[in-house]
Amino acid sequence: MDVQFETIINKAMQKHGPDLFADTRNCRATLADYAEGKCQREIRRLCTLLEAGAYKQIITTQDIELTKDRLVQDMFNQYSMDRSLAREMIDFLAFVCGKGAVSPIPIAQPAPKPKPTPQPIPPPVVPPPRSSLFMRIPAGTFMMGSPAPEVNRVGNEVQHKVTISRDFYMGKCEVTQKEYQEVMGTNPSHFKGNNLPVENVSWYDAIEYCNARSRKEGLTPAYSGSGASISWNRNANGYRLPTEAEWEYACRAGTSTPYSSGSSVDSVGWDWGNSGGETHPVGTKQANAWGLHDMHGNVWEWCWDWYGDYSTSSQTDPTGAASGTNRVLRGGSWFNIARYLRSANRGYYTPTSRYYNLGFRVVLP
Question: Is residue 110 assigned to a domain?
């Protein structure tokens, strides 16, 4: 996707909101004004999708992947649009319409096989972090995913029992721009502010930050390798990303409702309806029962796992699929409507992706 085009979409969305895509003619004219003669090819493709009813289908579907596959075929059959280009534009339209952090998945790609459950490893010895920055999350068992009656649930949230066998420490808030700048010497964020969450960071950026902060504080880095071959040393005492299971367990904090606050997210989360189209200082919304802020909204948070289908059987300390194309994101963001901030909602994107609503938080063993 053209970077200039993404920038144009972001600017237009901040001013007009997702309703921009409800009127094809108005959308074409608005984007043309923002583009100032640039990216006309991408605008034409997007408007072709809108004329074919893609916006309506995407915001009303309960099976986003099936809908996207069908739209790709329609674009090929009716408009002779190259399938890969159609898929790219449809994925992007799904993202800006608030369907969560999604990424192209090759149509012929088989579903990744679940990784075998690892054997429990004795926890490493690590000094407790300062209580002002981290909360201790107790070991326990919970139902991961969402129950069938939950409003707005989707098919990839199959409910299953998960045990987190070891206590761990989780950052009370998302990593801030000040924290990122102090470790990495740079601030890639679009919305600037020391106490705003760092964003516009890829999964690889988050991994690099964890290792750099570990080395800076005299801890053993948790990760080694590069690219798709990055491995996690579970005996290391350094900073790392949470697993998807750890993230949901910590987010729920003993609850089984759509949000840790119950059926409404307003008191604990920043979404499209209350964010004003931007990030907000961390910790300004109410914490969940375990003292964690911004688990719902503000920015999506990278997790360790490759994205894959859940197992229906009980698991202990699962770490996701053995391999894949996309890494898991959780929590939703300022850019999404409230349904995508649910505790069970699963986002995913390619690990190289950077957007204004992608950030992370860290954990320690």
Answer: no
Per the structure, the complete domain to which residue 18 belongs is given by 3-96
Same domain, 213 and 267: yes
Write the CA distances from 250 to 40, 242, 331, integer angstroms: 45, 10, 11
As given in the structure block, the two tokens for residue 156 are: 């990839």
Total number of domains in the chain = 2
For 71-91, how does the pLDDT look when each residue is reduced to its tens digit (9 = 90+)? 877 777 777 777 777 777 777
Measure the CA–CA gap between 336 and 345, rounded to whole angstroms: 12
Output the domain CATH number for residue 254.
3.90.1580.10
* Predicted structure pTM score: 0.68
Query: Among residues 40, 70, 96, which one ends one of the domains?
Result: 96
* Cα–Cα distance measured from residue 101 to residue 144, given in angstroms and rounded to the nearest whole number: 20
> Is 118 exposed, middle or buried, given 0-12, 13-18 or 19+ CB atoms closer than 10 A?
exposed
Query: Which parts of the chain sit beneath pLDDT 70?
Result: 1-7, 14, 17-19, 35-38, 62-63, 95-132
